[in-house]
Amino acid sequence: MDTIGSERFKILDYAFYPDSIAVVGASEHPLSFGYHFLRHLIEHKFKGAIYPVNPQNEIIQGLKSYPSMLEIPGNVDFVICCVATDKVLQLLDECALKQVKIVHLLTARFSETGRKEAIELERQVLAKAQEYGIRLIGPNCMGIYSPESGIAFGYNMPGIKGNIGVIFQSGGAATLLIQNGAVAGLRFSKAVSYGNALDVNECELLHYFADDDSTSIVAAYFEGTKNGKSFFDALKTVADRKPVIVIKGGKGNAGSRAASSHTAAIAGEQDIWKIAFKQSGAIEVDDIDEMLNLLMLFYELPPVYCNRAAIMGGGGGKAVIAADLAEAAGIILPPLPFDIKNKLKAIVPGLWDWLSNPLDTSIWGDEGIKLAEVPRLFLESPDYDFLIIQSSEDNPMADDIWAYIMKMNTTMILNNFDRRGKPIIAIMPRVKSYENPMDKFRWKIIEEEKAKLINAGVPVFDSISEAVKALSRYINYWRRHQTNIHA
Q1: What is the CATH number of domain 309-486?
Q2: Are 317 and 392 in contact (CB under 8 A)?
Q3: Is the CB of residue 469 less than 8 Å from the CB of residue 425?
Q4: pTM (two decimals)
Q5: Is the peptide bond before 337 cis (omega within 30 degrees of 0)?
Q6: What element of type H or E holds 163?
Q7: pLDDT digits over 420-467, tens only?
Q8: SS3 (DSSP) at 243
């Protein structure tokens, strides 16, 4: 087992890097969680020993099954509990005898129900786990994703390790982030959905991820905390070392009620949370889409400290809208300097004196082929810090010509893109429904071209609005970070 982090939080290594896992409640029934959690381990090629536990089957999904934990040969590091609440106490007795280090309690219907008997049972579960020295993740959570080990809690989760760590109280939201992030080219070091936080809580997880050398960026979703000071100290510890992007669930009255029934969380005063995020240095966002947009920049780009942008692409109206949106987000669009105008005069002598920033490419006509020479002018200029290139689905050309232009734009971006150089950000529209054959053709081309950019590491946004908003936050983060370093 690979161990990382400080001694205090080292026990969590057994969740992310176990040598053996038992799935208690493993099943052949495709509607049961025991089926899916076992299947995830098999499909992700978990590197250690897998022990299905179910007294009803001798073989489950091709693996030898055991009637109880006690029948498993040798000790077990990590247990995924997929059985009902009334079986958890007995399971802990068996886990103690097998020297289990951590139990993931997928099992729900504990304190989040608000029922007295469920709250009391949860108390008994914690007391017994503490008596045995067994740590608990959950209950009521999806548990662990560790691509390096081959552990997952959802389908379509990448098997390739990245550098984004995920601490989410909600399993569904964590799944959405990882699956959608994978489509955007993001890869993750590890993730944990911790549910009711009966034992292992957000504070301990934050300290663990702060010490985790394989995690460079942290994405987090919190619904509540039981110790405000400890939470702030832990959040600041990790935010001092690496970017932390956070969503606070349960902001309004309805959301607070939903959080309570979801994970038994105490949502707290929103002003206090906002102050905690701001003073700790964490970046608060409103939803998964905003989080993914920022993660994409932190994942793909070097630090950017200045906000002067050049924008290319789209028609006249799009250029005007792009300029307004950029300015509103705090992005500066410097006018074309003399040296660039002079070079444009040689490239497009019939257009150069019309052109400005944003650069409207719809007026280039048959000189559009010369666009490929333009990005380097912005990228080599000291007047601009990054370049945004828009590709458009609304070009009035015939389909074959339109497709040629789209592919030419992609080639232009890839030929000028350098991960270590001045950033290029691409804008490509989100694929919509196929209403007719022409739509299907165009959206198929967009999907193909977007995939090429993502595979190359180019940040791709669905709209200029999302791009400039994320860029503004990204730049502000690095400016604050630079100031703190030199303070």
Answers
A1: 3.40.50.261
A2: no
A3: no
A4: 0.91
A5: no
A6: strand 161-168
A7: 899 999 999 877 665 665 567 888 889 999 999 999 999 999 999 999
A8: coil
In tens, the pLDDT along 9-54 reads 789 999 999 999 999 999 999 999 999 999 999 999 999 999 999 9
Span 143-300 CATH architecture:
3-Layer(aba) Sandwich (3.40)
- Lookup: tokens for 327: 């300015």
Locate tokens 């410097």: which residue? 334
Return the closest-CA partner of residue 216 out of 193, 194, 186, 192. 186
CA pair distance 335, 314, nearest whole angstrom: 18
- Per DSSP, the three-state class of 68 is coil
The span from the CA of 466 to the CA of 294, in Å, is 10
Rounded CA-CA distance 405/386 in Å is 23
Domains 7-137 and 309-486 share a fold: yes
Angle between helices 270-280 and 228-239 (to 10 degrees): 30
Single-letter code of the amino acid located at 342? N
Reported as a single tens digit per residue, the pLDDT across 229-239 is 999 999 999 99
Please state, as a whole number, how many other Cβ atoms lie within 10 Å of the Cβ of residue 233: 14
Contact criterion met (CB below 8 Å) for 34 and 146:
no
Work out the number of other CB atoms within 10 angstroms of the CB of residue 158. Answer: 18
* Chosen CATH of 7-137 out of 3.30.450.280, 3.40.50.1240, 3.40.50.720, 1.10.10.10: 3.40.50.720
Query: CA of 5: how far to CAs of 197, 205, 212, in Å?
Result: 21, 11, 6
d(CA 214, CA 212): 5
CB 223 within 8 A of CB 193: no
Task: Name residue 202's amino acid.
Answer: E
**Residue 78 — pLDDT band, cuts 50, 70, 90?**
very high
The helix (run of H) or strand (run of E) holding residue 49 is strand 49-53
Domains of the chain, by residue range, sit at 7-137, 143-300, 309-486
Cis geometry, peptide bond prior to residue 358 (ω within 30 degrees of 0)? yes
